[in-house]
Amino acid sequence: MAPAEPPPPPGLAPDLGSYSREELLRLYAMVMRELRERGFVRIGNSPIGDVGEQLVAEFYGVSPIAANTAGYDCITPTGEKIQVKALWKTSPRRRNLSPIRSEDYDQVAAVIFDADMQPQDLWLVPRSVVEEHARWSDYINGRILTLKREVQTAPGVRHLFWDGDAFRRAD
Predict the structure, then answer these.
(1) Which of 133, 122, 139 is nearest to 82 (CA)?
(2) Is 117 left (phi over 0), alpha (psi -120 to 50) or beta?
């Protein structure tokens, strides 16, 4: 095994402080793809959940709540409890959100990121729609919501698009 190369001398490393949030996420996505291709990581745990929570909180004009709060990730100015689920579409067929294990929420906010970890869509799904369409899994002890057409077109579901700076309504 060859010895590890030393880090680059000062001044040759990129100044990450000058990168935008979007540029940093794109760089991270490139690094994770390369690590997966090399077999170094299998799935690559990512910051995608934290990023999704921050974007949803910004959309509502609030701050995310403490990370260890079960059931919801932010509370809207009107008092709605929002559980955020982020989906990084590393494959075009990915549509399942991570499990919903708590019942203490009013709405699920599904933030969809493209393969370059750039936000694309925000689906706001009322709890009643989650309960009607999500399947229960004893194995994971939670509900699994798939963002299929029946969910996307259900009454009360709202779809917003990322415009490069914030989520905006489709209309």
Answers:
(1) 122
(2) left
Cβ within 8 Å of residue 56, ≥6 positions away: 64, 73, 74, 82, 84, 109, 111, 122
Q: What are phi and psi of 19, to 5 degrees?
A: -80, 145
Question: Along the chain (171 residues), what's the average pLDDT of each consecutive run of 10 residues?
Answer: 52 78 88 78 69 92 87 96 94 90 95 92 97 96 96 96 86 59
CB 160 within 8 A of CB 121: yes
pTM of the model: 0.79
Which of 109, 23, 100, 126 is CA-nearest to residue 58?
A: 109
What is the spatial distance between Cα 26 and Cα 114, in angstroms, rounded to a whole number? 10
Cα 126 to Cα 6: distance, rounded to the nearest angstrom: 52
